[in-house]
Amino acid sequence: MFSKILIANRGEIACRIIRTARKLGIDTVAVYSDADAASLHVAMADEAVHIGASPVGESYLRAERIIAAAKQTGAEAIHPGYGFLSENPNFVDQVAAAGLVFIGPSAASIRAMGLKDAAKRLMEKAGVPVVPGYHGEAQDIVLLATKAREIGYPVLIKARAGGGGKGMRRVDHPDDFSEALSGARREAKAAFGDDRVLVEKYVDKPRHIEVQVFGDNFGNAVHLYERDCSAQRRHQKVIEEAPAPDMTPALRKAMTDAAVKAAKAIQYSGAGTIEFIVDASKGLLADRFWFMEMNTRLQVEHPVTEMITGVDLVEWQLRVASGEKLPKAQDEIALSGHAFEARLYAEDATKGFLPAIGTLHHLRFPETAPAGASMRVETGVRQGDAISPYYDPMIAKLVVHGPDRASALAALGEALAGTEIAGSVTNTAFLAALAADEDFAAGDVDTGLIGRKQEALTAIALPGDDVIATAALAAADVSIPRNGSDPWSSLVGYAHFHAGARRIRLKAGDEEIAARITARDDGGFDVATETGVHALRAGGGKRLARWPGHVTVFAGATGYSFGVPDPLAKADDAGAGVGNLRAPMPGLVKVVRSVAGDVVVKGQPLLILEAMKMEHTIAAPHDGTIAEIATEGAQVTDGTVLVRFAETEA
Ligand code: ADP
Ligand code: ADP
Ligand code: MG
């Protein structure tokens, strides 16, 4: 076994790998970018090496710096985690050339599966069922359109270099083919630098079911059952589970056999996942599943497999990479109970899952597992850490396990309802709505489920009057909240000395809410809102968080955030009275639409900021004359002035 390894990743997966390494007595080296200098994975590792600036291209994707860090610290092997360099065969070659071990498959295995078209041709040859379609080299549009017609609509155009759901277009009618093709090509070119595509049959009532496989360097390969990842939005996984609901013995046998066959066909070593698409329109049938792609790495959702098999997949990765044989034979791997994983993200489900950033001023996960279940919270952040625009905005993965699907799902609902996050918008309420959905609960899932019900699943529940009253009372307290301190301390004193009423203004979005608070003789408070008077007490088990300028009240899995206008902040605002425009987040100034001297009107688009992999149009906040404007191509940080307006005579 290794005595020291380097982890070429960040966030929850780096922390998760460190935990297993520590269990096995292996020292760990973390690498980090500027943005991650104070992050959890750095704090957890035995040593840490700074590898560059925050953008991934200047740090986590810099193979030579990562390898140098390993050499310099005496690490013997590199674990790539997922994403970043994990499926880059050139990196694997470089690691080997430096005399280090790559904890993962061979470069040849990664190359064999790296492009979806070549992988499909290879799998066809190995006798693995493959989605019917065209996986050839020729790419002219007439040929592709003819192939699409032969395959039969609907078809799916897919970037051969694709990943993360990018470069994919479903086409329902021949008339739409050429436009969809250009769209897929454009996206593929931008994301992967490769615009070649394949065309395949769009499977009816598709379910995404994948098989975890594991191989060693002695020709052994086993499977660790399946995971169902059909709950997807825009082809990205949202809640995963194992085993698949209503899996039949016949289909499981056929799929796991095919998966092991696929792994053996490429002499696969380490952890891998064979993704299949299943036509569930007539139930789960043993001849209605097809190979989609292989992910030659540890998968984000690997914990659900660990929960049902009791296997530590990272431990197996370390053992196999250090030259040991697979710890278990196929017949020693048993399946027990049911597990779910929910991916908690900083994103706005109500705005098309727009990624968000922010400081996690309040972050609390349930401390104990719901009754009868076990739970794992996989996270790379602590309270006070920030979700930055540089990386995937994942906050945590909530993983639960119960004796059966119903109890595990109930546990997931409870775990989500017990999660409190304030400081950034999150998808917690959306995940809870999905976990509570009747079709999802019945196991009647397919990849279209979320899309069909998106409106209901992402509807914003309005805060109840009791929530508003609680927020108003919390806002009336002026003590500075500190981690773990009683958020009500000054309010209690206030009650003793102030008999009169106090007016509170809250902001919910653009709306202003007024409340009036009076102290009662019994030590409680009457909070009058537009709709009624609530008798409340300070403290007393209310779930809330106060953070700069805000109060968040938690009800179930929903966090209701209110702005608390701060009378002291007024003076500051006045200083910037002309309303200079600042960058809401770090990013790249992509397009500039105005020049100094322009007279602009409120709402007029002035520039486009690219941040969080999306484009944000920045509009004029008021009428005015531009004195100065950012230059195209400039990299700006949070708060940088993008537009300075000319002083106006008051
Ligand atoms: P999975 O099925 O495991 O979600 P994906 O291919 O969608 O597989 O990506 C796995 C994870 O790796 C994603 O959640 C994403 O956060 C991360 N990832 C993918 N590509 C990159 C990249 N280029 N840089 C950083 N992270 C990435
Ligand atoms: P990526 O590399 O982006 O993960 P995949 O080939 O794994 O690409 O496909 C991503 C998702 O797209 C799948 O999980 C599935 O939901 C959907 N999908 C892929 N192929 C098909 C198909 N032939 N029919 C229906 N849905 C598909
Ligand atoms: Mg995939």
UniProtKB/TrEMBL annotation:
Cofactor(s) listed: biotin
Coiled coil ranges: none
Pfam family, one: Biotin_lipoyl
Key word ATP-binding present: yes
Sequence ranges assigned to domain Biotin carboxylation in this UniProt record: 1-455
MF annotations from Gene Ontology: ATP binding; ligase activity; metal ion binding
Every Lipoyl-binding domain range: 575-646
Domain ATP-grasp: 120-322
Keyword ATP-binding tagged: yes
Keywords on record: ATP-binding, Biotin, Ligase, Nucleotide-binding
CDD domains the UniProt entry points to: biotinyl_domain (cd06850)
Protein name: 3-methylcrotonyl-CoA carboxylase
Source organism of the structure: Mesorhizobium hungaricum
Species classification: Bacteria, Pseudomonadati, Pseudomonadota, Alphaproteobacteria, Hyphomicrobiales
